[in-house]
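**Protein record**
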Amino acid sequence: RTPHLAFSNGRRLRQLIFSVQTQEADQKTLKGAIAIRTKIDERIVLIVTTHLGPGKAEEYRVKRAQQNLEILTWIKKIQSEDPNDDVILLGDFNFNYRTIQDDLWTNDLDPSYQLLVDAGYSDAFHAVHGDKADVFTADPANPYKPDGEVGEFIDYVFVQSSHFRPTAADLTFTGKPEHFAKAYSDHWGVAVTLGP
């Protein structure tokens, strides 16, 4: 049974803890996802946020793919209550949309990314901007990023909807804000505008 919290307006916050964690440290933080159903423009929208496990080795990519599949299965189960739900799936997915081999981008989509595309999800940022290989959410310019690391685009807003589509998308919380020693986070944010 999926645990949930009840809100006074009748909404329920659902929680998924991944059955597969990528690293020992994740056993303490228990990576997973949370979801809430809400109404936007008179349409029911399921909003799901996640943080998939990190790690660059092949074993971590395999575990992330399992986590990704677990999320999609969980979403389908929630949608079985109302198959007309639009879905916004967002968060830190810890995979690039394209694969990196020998520190170079390839033209191959990452298997976890491909899984979402095949399930009918649209990557909002790339739907608006196309294939911008020089834009990263885990940017080498970020002071938290170790020197010499390749930039990565690993944070996404995915949309599965017959009504909403991305009309604008940009990176946000970039650079060093006033009164901060470094930056808001080790990743830049992704801001997306959805419209009919």
Notes: Residues 1-10 have pLDDT under 50 and may be disordered. The radius of gyration is 17 Å. The chain is about 20% helix and 35% strand.
